[in-house]
Design goal:
It is built from 15 helices and twelve strands. The radius of gyration is 29 Å and the shape is elongated. It is an alpha+beta fold and about 475 residues long. It is about 45% helix and about 15% strand. The strands form three sheets. Strands 1-2-4-5-3 form a five-stranded antiparallel sheet, with helices on one face. A five-stranded antiparallel sheet has the order 6-7-9-10-8, with helices on both faces. Helix 2 crosses helix 5.
Length: about 475
């Protein structure tokens, strides 16, 4: 019954197996798909692999060992002889399903078809093209490790294993995508992580029904968590193995996707996106001061420009000590339009910086400074105050640790500016209220996005605002329901 349920089982007909694999893999049509015709131990063999994935040294050694087989070396128990004695390789398996064999070959391993056997030997000799584990540009620290995740799933799992040598650590493998068959891995500590979260993640991955995931981790986030029409990130991304390991010890779950140099941390809250590894690489007092300054920069990126516009256009709200607020020279363009044009200009410069080759980056910076700064003010396009407050807001955006959060805050800043310009003080207050309500309504796997602010937890909120000394961080976050809350 099991054999009937499979579409294309492996049979003892060697020619039939070879013909099917050659046709389905497109060996004759694709230059990088290789079929080697071999004969060892008195039996014909066929080796299938993708040229770019094959590890030459391992395959050469395997063929050397097969060459030592005598002419009658595979007369008795040929499968056991090959797998247990003759092929000197650790990652070896077998399959009796030709469709599974095709999936394995396209994923990287080599398949050895042997005459007379109704099983195919799978040799995981793949070696993906990969760069070195360099420090990620967006999460650099002065002190600390300089390695970062790469695009290979196995290496990323090893980087985490190096830091978490706990016997309860689980790295569970799965595939997603009918055509791409992308490799994924759920990583968690079985005796700490909430098993309901783990099962929820597994079910969500099983329910993904799509051809492929070309955008890797970002596509996974959209399939699992939804909330497509609000800009805030629902998971935290990190390219640092030490940050990923820290969250494992807290009870979080990691999702690794082959082809992506980022680990997805689940569940996460709004405040997770405001933390940076540098805070924990300094003394607690220094780390706390860095965090407070960073929080101030993030709030400035959100509220400074709408608040200044409100005060600049409503002098009755300006106290005497802040009488300097307001544009001395209005400029040829209305104040509100100046902000919108400046925001669009900054976004254009950000896009240009991404696509500009490094040798030209300095020239782009000089042109930007001249156009948006000196020249724009002299010709009357911008007032000096608009450029000043825009610069402060942009610096706050760049100081935000999470790139995804900084982009979301930029959209909210523009929305607050629009509501303030249209409805004055009421628009400013209502805009902030709607923003807070939107964040409060978000939940990630049942975890409130604004915890510990709402629902309130004083001890946890203190740890969010102030970087506590590590000896005092003896409790895991209660919002993610760890099995072992005491550290």
């Amino acid at each position: 019954m099991e054999e009937e349920s499979r579409k294309h089982p492996v049979t003892s007909d060697f020619e039939k197996n070879i013909a099917f694999l050659k046709d389905e893999l497109g060996v004759d049509a694709s230059f990088d798909l290789i079929h080697l015709e071999l004969k060892h131990g008195g039996r014909r063999m066929g080796l299938f692999l993708v040229d770019g994935f094959g590890k030459d040294a391992a395959l050469t050694q395997i063929q050397r060992e097969l060459n030592r087989l005598p002419e009658d070396g595979l007369k008795e128990n040929p499968l056991d002889t090959l797998m247990q004695h003759q092929i000197p390789y650790v990652e070896i398996a077998k399959s009796d399903d030709l469709d599974e064999v095709i999936d394995e070959v396209l994923a990287g391993p080599a398949a050895l078809v042997v005459e007379g056997l109704d099983q195919v030997i799978i040799l995981d000799t793949r070696e993906y093209p990969v760069r070195g584990p360099e420090e990620p540009d967006t999460e650099q620290v002065i002190r600390g490790s300089k390695d970062g995740f790469v695009e290979t799933l196995v290496m990323n799992a090893a980087l985490i294993r190096r830091r978490v040598r706990d016997r309860s650590m689980r790295v569970e493998y799965s595939k997603v995508g009918r055509r791409s068959k992308s490799d994924l891995a759920l990583v968690y500590l079985a005796d700490i992580a909430d098993q309901e979260y783990v099962e929820a993640m597994k079910q969500a991955l099983d329910q993904i029904d799509t051809d492929g995931l070309p955008m890797a981790d970002k596509s996974i986030e959209e399939f699992i968590f939804g909330h497509h029409y609000q800009p805030y990130p629902l998971i935290r991304y990190t390219e640092r193995p030490d940050v990923a390991a820290t969250h494992l010890f807290e009870g979080h779950i990691l999702l690794l996707v082959d082809g992506s140099p980022s680990a997805m941390i689940v569940p996460s809250t709004f405040w997770h996106h405001l933390q940076h590894a540098e805070e924990y690489r300094q003394k607690p007092v220094v780390g706390a001061s860095l965090r407070i300054v960073r929080f101030g920069a993030v709030w400035a990126s959100l509220f400074l420009m709408p608040l200044w516009y409100l005060l600049a256009t409503n002098e009755q709200f300006v106290p005497e000590v802040l009488s300097f607020i307001g544009a001395e020279k209005e400029g040829a363009v209305p104040l509100f339009a100046q902000f919108l044009v400046a925001e669009a200009g900054i976004e254009m410069l950000r896009m240009a910086a991404i696509h500009t080759p490094n040798p030209l980056a300095t020239a782009l910076g000089l042109v930007s400074a001249l156009l948006i700064g000196e020249v724009a003010i002299n010709v009357g396009l911008f007032s000096a105050e608009v450029v000043l407050y825009l610069a402060v807001a942009v610096v706050g955006t760049f100081a935000t640790p999470s790139y995804e959060l900084s982009l979301a805050n930029r959209l909210i800043r523009v929305a607050l500016l629009l509501s303030t310009a249209l409805f004055g003080l009421g628009g400013f207050v209502v805009g902030i209220t709607v923003w807070l309500l939107m964040l409060i309504r978000i939940q990630v796997l049942g975890t409130p996005y604004m915890w510990p602010f709402l629902p309130f937890n004083g001890r946890a909120l203190r740890d969010v605002i102030f970087r506590a000394p590590m000896p005092l961080k003896n409790r895991r976050p209660v919002a993610i329901h760890p099995n072992d809350p005491d550290r």
